[in-house]
Amino acid sequence: MSLRRTAAAAALTLAALTGTTAAHADAPETVPGVAAAPAAATASPSAPVAALPVFTDGHGLTVLPGATQVHSPTDFTLTVTTKQLSGQHKIRVLLPAGYDAAPERRWPVTYFLHGGGGTVDDVAAAPALHSDSMITVVPDGGLKGWYADWLMQNTAEGAANWETFHLTQVVPFIDANLRTRADRDHRAVVGLSMGGYGSLHYAEARPDLFGHVAALSGGIDFGMAQVRAAVLATELNLTGAWCAVSSSSSTSGSGKCTGYGPYVDSDAIFGSPYPVFNADRVWRAVDPAAPANLAKLSRTGITLYTGNNDIIDVHTEAASKTVKARLDQLGIASRLVNYGNGASLAPSCNGGHNYGCWAPAFADYVPRLEAAFAAAG
Fold first, then answer.
1. Backbone angles phi, psi at 82, to 5 degrees
2. What is the pTM of this model?
């Protein structure tokens, strides 16, 4: 069976590898026992704008004035433009409660990469990421950006240099505008699903930037046909019956699923997925599970989380086990938390591909990351 046909057949089960399940793409999933985040409010004279840091254009980013959304004095969303991407894009920033009160203090930074079909607002479903010990930054990753500089720049998506946007623009922009600890020992990248791929890939591509990485239910083994099929499904917008299921429980009540945006060529992001005559060379070059790429993490704190109790996480479990085994072979320390059916993690977790598991996984991870930041001095 061709990978294109595999992608279509896998859409019912694998398209969710890139997004949030049981939630509309425009609304973060509600987690049992976790209050929903307040609706964003556009900045106005009555909003607490004065308490927000002032952001200056730079590093290729232009901040749109008057477009900042204020959720609270320590939680706000900027809107920026860049030549690297078509359109306008959001960057959500979560500050520690003591940021204003300690003007001489600098803070570690964690970058959270959302899943496909998601938005920067998905972070509201993982409250542990709003920590009083660090700054959390959530940059837009696109509905199907895959944290990559696309090979094709003339699709319906237009300019799509997501990796350049994040690594050469957003990171130095944040360091220039906030009081950060701008070194790898005080900078982490974490992500789930599609963002799990992004986090591990970014940590490998720029070990000078990130000293800590966590991938939750990640598509982190491009050697697996199932993971490649999930990427193709997003390119072709093959949401299929999965969207019908998720939209039925959507808070939007629209009965529609926005999916992964417009159809693009199946070779648009990483080129041909077929392992014939070196056609899939880009897939192999950026494969997070490739030993040559994993070797770049020799000085990085690595954590993987996965369940195995649905038709998505059974594949993320396989990918995570492969990465863990190869790290062990390379003598690189790492931590794999396989919570199986979720019983060992939290009552809200069913071992599936959802924030009912990811929220408590972050609740387990963030204190460990805070301790690592503190130990770095």
1. -155, 150
2. 0.89
